[in-house]
Queue: 2 jobs
Job 1
Amino acid sequence: MSTIATLRKGEIGYISEESLDFIPLKLLEMGCLPGAEVQLVQIAPLKDPIYICVNGSHLAIRKETASKIIILKANL
Amino acid sequence: MSKNDIKVALIGNPNTGKTSLFNQLTGLNQKVGNYPGVTVDKKQGTSKLSATQNAIITDLPGTYSINPTSMDESIVLKTLLKKDIKESPDVILVVADIENLKRNLLLFSQIKDLEIPTVLAINMVDQMHRKGITIDLSLLKKELNTEVVLISARKNEGIEDVKAAIIRCHVAAKASPLCGIDHKIDPDYFAKLKEISPNYSLYELWLMVTQNNYPETVTKEEKEKLLAFKKDVSKLKKYQHKETIYRYQEINKILKKTYIVDKSKATDLRGQLDRIFTHKFFGYFFFTLLLLVIFQSVFDWASVPMDFIDATFAEIADFAKSNLPSGMLTNLLTEGIIPGIGGVIIFIPQIAILFLFIAVLEETGYMSRVVFLMDKIMRRFGMNGKSIIPLISGTACAIPAIMATRTIASWKERLITILVVPFTTCSARLPVYAILISLIIPDKKIFGFLNLQGLVLLSLYALGFATAIIAAYILHKTLKIKSKSFFVVEMPNYKLPSVKNVFFEVVEKTKSFVLEAGKIILALSIILWFLASNGSSSFDNAEKNTVENVANQNLSDQELQQKIASARLENSYIGVLGKTIEPAIRPLGYDWKIGIALITSFAAREVFVGTLATIYSVEADDENTSTIKEKMQSEINPETGKKRFNFPVGMSLMVFYAFAMQCMATLAIVKRETKTWKWPLIQLFGMGLLAYVASFITFQILS
C-alpha cells in the first residue's frame, strides 16, 4: 500500500478517498483533500520530516502523519 | 476611542502579509496590550478611514482556520465568538495571498458563515503577472457576496480601497453565510442544532459544540442543550471532515469561474533555494554559519552603544550628585533610580540586534526551513522543530522567547520548551560573565589567534545550551503528560524582508522587554538601596561605635571614614541578610558581600554587578573613583590575605549564574503562560539546586 511516506523525492501521487478518516482535520483544512495531487519535494537531512506540495500548499509534515495518508501513485 | 469608531479584526493565514497591511493601515499608531483575561499579546492600532471616520484595528494571530490547535489560534476563535458589544468586531478584514487563494478562502468561508460583515483583501497582486495569475474581480465579488479588494501591502497599493471597503461594508446590512452547512451534511442534525437559539448563527452554534468554547452570553439552558450534541465525538469529527470538504468544493466552484493560473509562467526560485537550505550538509553548515554571524554581531556591534549608555548614566548620576542638595532623596536618585534605569537601558542594543536578525529570518521565510531541519533532532529531546526559535531568542531574553512558544501545538513539547529556555545564556548573564572573566582569565592568545577570554565566554554559551538540551531530555522522560504531538509547518515562499515590518517588530519586542523586565529591575534597585542605607540600632550606632573602637589607633580621617562605611554596611539590613546566609554559601567560596549580590540578583542577574558596585562604593572613600573592576580586583579575602576573586571563586560564580533561575520577570511570564505557580516554582528550586551543587563541585575541585 502506498502512502505519502513511501513517495520518493519528486514523485507525485493522489490522495485516496479511503484515507479520509486518517487525515487530521488540520491537514484537511490546509488542502490535503481526497483526490488532491501531492508531490514529495524534499526529505529533511535526518529523513524526517518531509516537505510536500499539495493543492498549492507547501507543507512540512512528519513521516508518522504521512504514513497514514494513503495515495495512488501516478505513472504506475 | 470614540463611539463611532469601527472595530475591525484583521484575520488571515500566516505568511499572507497580514502584518504588512496592519502596519500600512495604522503606521505608528500601534499599541500592544493584553487581551482581557487571556495572556496573548493584543496588537491594536488606529486607522483614519476618511475625514470623519476612524477604525480601531486589532491584529489577530495568523491562523489557517477557526478550529484552533495552538494557543495563538484559539485567540481568533475567542474573539470571533465573543458576543460582547464592546469586544466583538463590527467588520472583519480577511487577508489572503494571491498565490494560495484557495486555501485562504477556507478561512474566509468560515468567517463569512459567522454572518459578520467581511472584507476580503487579496494581497501580493504585484506578483500576479509574474505567476501567470488572472482574476475576474467583479465576478469574484458577486460569487463571494462580499467586498473584495486587490492590494499590495508592501508596495502600499490598494490601501485606500481597503479603507473605503471597510466603510461600505460597515454601512451595509447583515452579512449572509457563504456555505450554508445545514442542508449539505445532515439536515436533521443541523436543524436541531439551529433550534437551540435564535441569537446565534448556525455556524456559531456548531463552533461552540466542536470547539467546546462558549461565550459568556450563552444561557445555562442553551449550554446544556449544546453539551448534549457533544456526546457522539466520532460523529462530530466526521461532520467536521465533511464540512471542510464541502467548503473546498464550493470554493473550487467559485475559483473555477474567476481565477486562472498559467503554471508555465511560474519561476522556481523556491526549489533552488530549498535545495541549498535544506541540504543534508549545506543546510546545517549554513545555519551554523548564520548563528556565528548573529552572535558575533550581537557582541561586537552592541558593545559600542552599551559602553556609551554605561558612561552616560554614570555621568548623569555624577551630575545629579554634585548639583542636587545632599540628602535622602538625592541618594535615592543617584544610588537607586538612575543606576536602576541604566541597568535596563544597557540591554537595549543587544536585544534589538538579536530581534533584528530574528525578524529578518522570519520575514524571508528561512525560519520555516530551520524548523524543518531541526525537528527530528529536537524531537529526541521532547521538543519539536518550532522550539528552536525560542531557544535562539532566549540568548537575548527569556521573556519574549517563552512567549514565542505559543505556536507549538503539543502542550508537552511547549511546556518542556518553556522550562528549559532559561538555561540558554541570556544577555543579562553577559555583564556577570564579562566582569568575572576579565578578573580571572588572562587576556592572552592561544594558537596565536584565539582569544582565551572569548573562548571561555563561548564555552559558557555552549554550557547553557547543552544544559537546556539535557534538561529537556530528562523532562521528556519524566513528565507524564499525555499530549499528541502534531506537526504541520507551512514552507512559505522566499521573500525579501520589508524594512517597515522588521522595524516595527524590533521596536515592539524591545519595548515589551524594557517594560516587563524594567519595572522589576528598577523596583529592585530602589529596595536594594533602601536596605543598604538603613538598619537596626547597631546600624545607627555604627559611626559612634567605630570611632570608640579605633580611638587610640591614630587613623587618618580618610581611613576612619572607610571603617565607618564598612561598619554601616555590615550592620545594614542587607548586610545582616548577607551574614545570615554566609554559612550556606561558604562551601561555594563566597563571603557575605558576594552573598548580598547573590540574593539581590535572584530577581535579575544583571543586578549582581550593580550590587557589588554599590557595596564596594559604599565602603570606598569618595575620592577613590576606580572602576568596579578595579575595586573587585583589589578586594582581599581576610582569611587568606589574597585576592577575593581568584580563579576558583570566579569559576564557581560563573557556574552558579549559568544555572540558577535568577529572573523574577521570567518566573512571572512562566506563571502567566502555564497558568499555575507549579512550573515557575519547579524552575526556581530545580535550577537553584543544580546551581548550588555545580558551583560547590567547581569550587572544591579547583581550590
Note: The first helix of chain B runs from residue 18 to 26.
Job 2
Amino acid sequence: MCARKRAESDAEASGAADPTAPGTGTARTVLDGPEIQRALTRIAHEVLERTKGAHDVTLLGIPSRGVPLARRLAERIERVEGRAVPWGSLDITMYRDDLRLAPARALGRTDIPPQGIDGRVVVLVDDVLFSGRTVRAALDALSDIGRPRAVQLAILVDRGHRELPIRADYVGKNLPTSLRETVDVRLTETDGRDAVLLGPARPRPGEEDDR
Amino acid sequence: MRHLLSTGDLSREEATLVLDTAAELAQVSGRSVKKLPTLRGRTVVNLFYEDSTRTRTSFELAAKRLSADVVNFSAKGSSVSKGESLKDTALTLQAMGADGVVVRHAASGAAHRLAGWVDGAVLNAGDGTHEHPTQALLDAYTMRARMGRVEGLRVAVVGDVLHSRVARSNVLLLHTLGAEVTLVAPPTLMPVSVHTWPCAVSYDLDAVLPKSDVVMLLRVQAERMRHAFFPTAREYSRRYGLDRDRLARLPDDAIVMHPGPMVRGMEISAEVADSPRSTVNEQVANGVSVRMAVLYLLLGGS
C-alpha cells in the first residue's frame, strides 16, 4: 500500500518517472542537496520581506512533497525571526478535476494549524508547478476551510506549461522543460535524499498528467 | 473494488484504506462548510425495502456531503406495493442513470443479485440476516478511534447472532483486521453454521467479560422471530443483558458498543447505555464518515 501510494504521489507531485525504473533512460540532476537548501533559505527570506515579518503567515504544504517543504520553510523563518510560524498540510485530492480519469486514490492528510486560516496570509507550498491544476484545486479547498486575507504560492521548481492563469510568488528554480521530460523531486523526508532530477518521459497510457 | 456487498470481500489493505479515508473525511464534519465537490454530478439512489431511519439518513448525509445527487426510494408507497420485482426496479434505476445504489432488503443476497443487474456500484446497506458491511466498518473505525488499534483486540459480540447481519459482517471484518472475536448468545440464537465462522463461541457472558476489550451488544430482532427463541425478555436480560454489575467485570479501559436501536432495560441497562464507556452516539457520527469514505472509494474514481 505504502509503496503504491509513494509511486502515485511521485506522478502526482511532478509528473515524474522513477529514473531507477527499467526502460526510462537516465535522469540528470538539476538541483542537488545544498542547492535545494539554498533555494529554500532564499524563499524563506523572500516570504519574510514580502509579508513584512511574516506575522500573520500560515504555511500550508500540498501532500506529499509540499508538506516537508512547508516544514523546512517554517523552520528557516523561525531561525531568522526567532518566532514560530504555523504550518500544516492541505490535501487537494477531493478537489481534483481529473478524479474520474483514474481509480479512486488514497487521501493525503489535511492538517490546519489551530489558529485556522481566517484573516491570515496563507502561503501554499508545493514541489513542482506545472499545469497549475493542483493549485486551482488547493484554492478551492482553502475556500471551504476559511477565508484567508491573501494566498501566495511558493514552489521549488517551476517547469512551465501552465494550463491555467496561475503563477508562483516564490520560485526556487525556473526550469524550462519539454513536455516529453519529467521533473522528479526527491526529499530526504520521503525519499532518503534531496535532489531534483530531469529525466525522459515515462510512456503514459493516457494523456499528460501533471500531478 | 466495484461494489461493497460483504466485508468478507475486503482485504486487510482495502479495509484499512476505508478506515484511513474515513479518518481524513471526519475532519469535514467539524468544518463550517461540510461539503466536498468530489461526487458532483453523480447520482446515488437509496433503495430501501425495509424501514431504517439511521442507515438511510447516514448514507444520504454522506452522499450529500460529497455533493452527489441523492434519490430516496422506499418500497412503501412505491410501485413495489403494486407488485414490481426487484429486477424491474433495478432496471428502472439503471435507465435513470444511477451511479450508485444503496440497497436495504429483507432477503439475504438481494444486494448480490442487484449487483448483477445494474452498471453502477452497489452498496449493501443490510440484506436480510446476511450482511451489513458499512456497520461493521464503522464499528471497526470506532474501536480504532477509542482503543488506538483493532489488531489484537478481544471483542465479544453478544445477543441475537442468528438474526444479525451486523454480527456476521463484524466477525469477517474484525478477523481480517486481526482482532479476536467471541460470539456470545443463547444456543437458540446461534446460527447452525457458526463453527465455520472465524471466531470463538460461548454461551456464558460472565465468563467472557473479563477477557474482553470491547463488548458489542446486538439488538434482539423480535420482528424476525416467528417463534420463541428464549422464555422471557426478563430471563434473556438476566443472562445476556449488560448492566452495571457486568460492566464492572470488564477491564477498566473496555468499551461498550451497540449498533442501535437499543432496547433499554433488556439488552443494555440505561445506566450502561449512557455511561462514558458506551460508544453508541460516536458510532452514529462515525457512520457518516465511513459511508463518505466508501462512497468516495467506489464512485470517486473511474
Note: Residues 42 and 91 of chain B are 18 Å apart (CA to CA).
